[in-house]
Here is the input.
Amino acid sequence: MNNILKSTLTTVVLASLSFGASQVYAVDTLNQIKERGKINIGFNDTSMPISYVVNGAAAGYAIDICRNIASNIRKQLNAPNLKIEFIPLTPGQRMDAIMNGRIDMECGSTTNSYKRQQQVSFSTNFYYTEVRMAVKKSTHFEDLSDLNNKVVSTSAGTTSTQYIKRDSRGRDVTVRTIYGHDMDDSFNLLVKGKSEAFVMDDNILAGLIAKSAKPDDYEIVGPVLSSEPYAVMLPKGDEKLKALADSTIIGLWKSGEMMKLYRKWFQSAIPPKNINLNMAPNRSYLNLQRRPTDAGV
Here is the structure.
């Protein structure tokens, strides 16, 4: 075997580790960013107050976190003028965008799940949400049993409605699920009467209700179906980028800056309508604050 062939084979082996039918490839996103001269950040533009759009620009709790990560990327690459582009994505697009290299990271309401970890990586978690359901007050729905033989909406590419059957109170409940293109579309199915409940993360529900034309017509009800951590989604196998993202987020937790961001986006008036969601941090969020982790669900 000649030296050139031997070197090529060695490179292939080192760059690719096989696990059954799947493969994990070594990735150097920071080097790609440096060569490109730009950080591409995907985000969900309909997940107020986590990530959304204000006056044409990305805004929200997760967006501020990712701006901190981007700032540390600039420092590590010694590239203070490195550009940042925020790319809006639907929930159904986000994983493909990471895996095909369209974006370098994804910042929004993405659950850090063990299933997703087979294809992508996640940073240390920055938020914990509770999955519940939004309904019209006029229906007087209060529990999962009220959903039996009803139409329930959620967003394509999300995990929410599966938890109805997992809850002991929902095992005998039969629902028909319809999917919206994104969060706004899914909520509009409820608004237009095409669904009778929208099952989703409580912070997203609160934001959609608050910015709706008639917020007093809706309420968040029912049991907590799941507590789920949000994290920055990253390319699989890129340990350098993950280490940078982790150190940034852990630093925000330990310094108290993360709680300041929480108060900014969940307990203060936020644009564009100066709405205050008045959401107290839940128990899972406070536990995460005490002990930051990248554990999924």
Q: What stands out?
A: Residues 52 and 59 are 5 Å apart (CA to CA). Confidence is low (pLDDT under 50) at residues 1-24. The first helix runs from residue 3 to 15. The chain has ten helices and 15 strands.
